[in-house]
Amino acid sequence: MPPFVSISDHTDTNVGTNAVQTTQKNLKKQESPTSSSPNPDVKDGKHYALPTQFARLVGARMAPHRPLPQQFPQRLMLTSPNHIELNSHATERGYRSCRGAVRRYFKPQLWTSVNLPREQRRALDAILFNLMRTLDLLDLESADGRSLDVWFELRDDLSDAFRGKCTSVELAALVDASRRFSIPKQFIFDPLRGADLWIRNQKFQTFGELESFCSYVGGSSLVSAMPILGVTKPDFEVFAVECGKAIMLTQLLANCVNDIKRNKIYLAQEDMFQCELDVPRLKLRRPSPSLIHFVRLYASRIEKMFFRAKRLAEHLDFDGNRTLKSLLALHWQMLLKMQLTPETILSEQGVLNRQERLALKSRHLLGLERDLPIFTAATKANHSH
């Protein structure tokens, strides 16, 4: 497999106004088989671009471009075969559609952003919609190679959208959000890169491989949300990646039983082997000593990430600071409960019950984020850096 390189255009990081306002006449000209303008990212039949700073950080790899089949699973057919005309009406429809999809998919976390101004909430919805498309892709069965085919479809749709050829109103909203808040395209493409790591192997052998996956999917999504939340200091990327990685690992640990029942094992194989984790017993939601050891092993690793990620709040303005602290506190509470009572991951109702979620939400609405457990806990010396 060839070395992975960025799928986005490397010559610019923002979407230009001219690209977004491409006329219908130019679109038809580009689609015409007689007009074949060379793609600067294509050379010898493969897609090339300069490696990004984040790509070098986690060192993932990706396959070259190849032709797509005609049929794709209906659940991921979020686009139409015809390009839509980009205008304020289409963008507005896209934001509304993103909001509806995000409400269904991320409902337990939505309350953390209610304090943000409307424009910031809308842009955040577009970023979460981009993450949602990636997570849906991970749920596809890949025995017949369909998930990889859909991966190429989603990547090409995203690439076309940033060239002014959107195939859905949701992508129009995503492009608009990235332009308004100057979000580098590389971080919008990164979740798909993480999905590629899973699709090709359907497992992670080591915890390092799992970390790379979470860095691309969760870390990059949070990095792309940072300009929306209001960054006030530079050098926030490392803390944002650490924060997004900790949040995603918490979610994977909390939902590992449901994933295993669907034959999706995202957690590291070598850790499961060393802890002698009984997978058939997990499918039946039965506790075991090996489960307790395994959950506490992962909880201790994630705890260190959370303590490092706390510093990210210092890089945000007032509203963004509140949103991030509440998001951190929600997942910290989940982690703390799993650490104290590992058997809670076996519950079909989730790790946190309704009362615990309402308590966190009430603190956020009252502006009491600084009193949440993760921010009142004493930071250990070996966790400070």
Strand order of the largest sheet: 1-2
CATH topology of the largest domain: Farnesyl Diphosphate Synthase
Rg, alpha carbons: 21 Å
Count of DSSP E strands?
2
What descriptive keywords fit this protein?
Farnesyl Diphosphate Synthase, 17 helices, disordered C terminus, 2 strands, 385 residues, globular, mainly alpha, two-stranded antiparallel sheet
Tell me what the structure shows.
A hairpin with a 2-residue loop joins strand 1 and strand 2. The chain is globular. The relative contact order is 0.10. It has a two-stranded antiparallel ribbon. It starts with 16 loop residues before the first helix and ends in a 9-residue tail after the last helix. Mean pLDDT is 77; it is low at 1-81 and 378-385. Helix content is 57%, strand content 1%. The protein is mainly alpha-helical. It folds into two domains: 80-182, no CATH class; 203-385, Farnesyl Diphosphate Synthase. Helix 10 (237-254) runs antiparallel to helix 14. It has 17 helices and two strands.
